[in-house]
Amino acid sequence: MAKQDTGTAGNESRGVRLHDSGEQLPPKQAPNTETELLRRAHRIAGLSFSDLATSLDWQVPESFHRAKGWVGQLLEAALGADASTRSEPDFVQLGVELKSIPVDLKGRPRETTFVCSASLTQMREWTWHQSRVRKKLARVLWIPVQAEPDLAIASRRIGSPLLWSPSDAQEQALKTDWESFAERIAAGYVETITAKEGLVLQMRPKGANAAARRWGHDADGAIFQTQPKGFYLRTKFTQQILQQNYVL
């Protein structure tokens, strides 16, 4: 598990204890400042999923086949996320998005990171600065979590948090990819986009099943139904973030 050089922040009281400890349980109110949010995140760093789930009266799933998104929901509940809709950052008042990032024993990302769903009918009208992707990635609280397949879910631990904003170079790379996708969608070629495209940002189908459909525009500007799409960060991009901010 990667460890961040957190300085004095690392000396914060660590751990949301179990009910019989007498220590305060995870807060129910959203944090008012980034400092408060980061303090909460440091307090749960090092805990197992079982520890944190018990403090919230949650059940730990035996597998993620029918519990996709469980880790993110657990962390949101523990930290007091208050987003009312998925189009807003998880901590609305702070403008901070929460992203858990599954890593291997060497702290390397094991999978791409979901950013947000693509609004195929609106992207053609938005600029990069108006986009959902930029809003989601302008300020991110990254929390690495253990994700080795042979490690029981209950035993997997939560890593040290990182509060991050993209550098100028990183934002330019994201913008370039997003604008390329937006141009294709505006021209009516959304169905030709593949997961192989994009240097740091990937666009691929995002739906409950292959039959899921969303509205889009064809080359003539007519509305038609197509597979829903989502934006994902490539692992080489998230690994760069971890390498620049953690000791791997």
- Total helices: the number is 6
- SSE order, as H and E? EHHHEEHEEHEEEEHE
Mean pLDDT: 81
The name of the CATH topology is ECO RV Endonuclease, Chain A
Strand content: 15-25%
Sheet with the most strands: spatial strand order: 2-4-5
The whole-angstrom Rg is 19 Å
Low-confidence blocks of residues = 2-24, 215-220
CATH architecture: 3-Layer(aba) Sandwich
Question: Ends: how far apart?
Answer: 8 Å
Q: Structural class given helices, strands, pairing?
A: alpha+beta
Name the overall outline: globular
Work out the number of β strands: 10
CATH superfamily: DNA mismatch repair MutH/Restriction endonuclease, type II
Q: Tell me about the largest β-sheet.
A: 3 strands, mixed
Helix percent band: 25-40%
For the record, what CATH class applies? Alpha Beta
Tally of discrete structural domains:
1
Write structural notes for this entry.
The protein is of the alpha+beta class and 248 residues long. The protein has one domain: ECO RV Endonuclease, Chain A (3-Layer(aba) Sandwich), CATH 3.40.600. It is 26% helix and 18% strand. It has helices at residues 34-44, 49-55, 70-79, 132-137, 168-186, 235-245, and strands at residues 3-4, 97-103, 113-117, 140-146, 162-164, 201-205, 214-217, 223-226, 229-233, 246-247. A 3-stranded mixed beta sheet has the order 2-4-5, with helices on one face. Strands 3-9-6 form a 3-stranded antiparallel beta sheet. Strand 7 and strand 8 form a beta hairpin. The relative contact order is 0.17.
